[in-house]
Amino acid sequence: MIKANVKADFPILHRQINDEPMVYLDNAATSQKPRMVIDRVTEYYFQQNANVHRGVSSLSMAATDEYEAARQAVSDFIHAEGPDNVVFTRSTTESLNWIASGYADSVLQPGDEIVITVAEHHSNIVPWQQVAKRHHAKLKYIRLNACGRLDLIDAKHQITDRTKIVAINHVSNVMGAENPVAKVSHLAHQHGAVMVVDAAQSAPHMPIDVQALDADFLAFSGHKMLAPTGIGVLYGKQAVLAEMNPVQFGGEMIDEVTQQTATFQKSPLKFEAGTPNIAGAIGLHAAINYLSAMGMESIHDHDLQLTTRCIERLRQLGGVTIYGDSDPANHNGVVTFNVAGIHPHDVATGLDMEGIEVRAGHHCAQPLMDVLGVESTVRASFYFYNDATDVDRFIDALSKVKEFFTDGLS
Ligand code: PMP
C-alpha cells in the first residue's frame, strides 16, 4: 500500500505552474526526489565529503564505506550475485555505451549480428549502430505484436547462431509494455549470444531480479527512481565483466602503472576511472531505501490502478488514440496517446497552461514512431506519488484543451 500522505515527502509537488497546482506526469523522463534523498545528499556534503578509495584518513575511509554500501544496496535491490557485479556509471545511456564499446567492440566479427527491437530508446539503438558499423556486423530488429511487446515468434527468426548480442528494453518508455525478458534470454543463450537488458523504465516500477531474468548485462538510471541525476548502474555477470574492457582510463581503475604500461584493477573498479559520483551513489542508496520501504510490488500495483483509470477515462473522452496494449495492465504507468486533429505539442502546451506536466515528442524512439505511423505523441507517465485526483485533473484539463482546439474555434 502506498501511504496516504506520500506527496508530503516530495517538496516540489506542492509548487504551482501557471498559477495552477502542478500535476507532474512526466515520470518516465525523470522522477521527483523525496526530501529524505535530498537531505541525505546534503548531509553527505555537510558532514562526510571526501574522495573514495584513497588514503587512510578517517573521512576518506568513511566516504568509501558509504560509497561501497550503496553498491551493496543496488546489488540487493536487483538480486545480483554480489556488489562486484555492480558498476556505477552516469546513466543508462552511459552503461549501454560502455557495453557496446567495452564488450561488443572486442567480440564482434564481420557478419555477426546484434538483435534489438523496433521499440528501443535511441540509447539502445545508436551505440549498436556505431559498433556494428565499425565491425561490419548487422543490426537486426525484432518486430512487435499487437500488444506492443516484442513478437516472440519473430525473435526466434531474428536470433541465430550469428547473433552475438541481444539488447532489449524490459519496459518500453513509449507504450509501457513489458517484454518477456527471461524467454528472450533463454533464446539468446541457446545461440551463444549475450543478453543486454535496458531496465531504465522497469527498475523504478517493479521488482527486478537479474538472475531470474538471466540477464548478462542490465542497465538503469538513478534519476528515474528518486535519486539524483548523474548516477546510473551497469550490472554484469562476472564472466562478461571480466571480458569487458574499460572505456575510460585514469586514476583509481589501475593496479600498477609504469612509463609505458598499466595493469588494471578487477571489476567493478576497473571501469570506474577517476573520482566517481559519490554523492550520486549515496543518493541512490537513500532512494533504494525509500522505494524498498514502500515496496516495489505496491508501487507496481499502484501504477496499474492509475493507468487503468487514466485509460478508461481517455476512452470515454473520445477522439483519442492510445498506443500499445488495449489492456491497461500492460502499460506500467505509461500512457501514450494522440488527440485527433490536435498536434501533440499543442496538447502538451494546453495541458501545461492548466498545470499538468506531460511530455510531447518522439520520446527518443523514432524507429518506433515510424512503426506507429506518427511523428510524435503525448505521454502521461505516473509514479507512486500520483493519485486518482491527478488522473482526474489531467483528464479534465485534456477535455478543456480538446474543446479549445475543436469546438472552441469552430
Ligand atoms: N532507455 C529507456 C527505456 C529510457 O526510457 C531512457 C530514458 N528516457 C533511457 C534508456 C536513457 O536513460 P538516461 O537518459 O537516463 O541515460
UniProtKB/TrEMBL annotation:
Residues 23-394 form the Aminotransferase class V domain. Its cofactor is pyridoxal 5'-phosphate. Gene3D superfamilies: Aspartate Aminotransferase, domain 1 (3.90.1150.10), Type I PLP-dependent aspartate aminotransferase-like (Major domain) (3.40.640.10). Transmembrane segments: none annotated. The keyword Transferase applies. Keywords: Pyridoxal phosphate, Transferase. Pfam families: Aminotran_5. It catalyses: (sulfur carrier)-H + L-cysteine = (sulfur carrier)-SH + L-alanine. SUPFAM superfamilies: PLP-dependent transferases. InterPro entries: Aminotrans_V_dom (IPR000192), Cys_dSase_SufS (IPR010970), Cysteine_dSase (IPR016454), PyrdxlP-dep_Trfase (IPR015424), PyrdxlP-dep_Trfase_major (IPR015421), PyrdxlP-dep_Trfase_small (IPR015422). Its EC number is 2.8.1.7. GO terms for molecular function: cysteine desulfurase activity; pyridoxal phosphate binding. It is an enzyme of class 2 (transferase). One of its GO terms (biological process) is cysteine metabolic process. Belongs to the class-V pyridoxal-phosphate-dependent aminotransferase family. Csd subfamily. This is cysteine desulfurase.
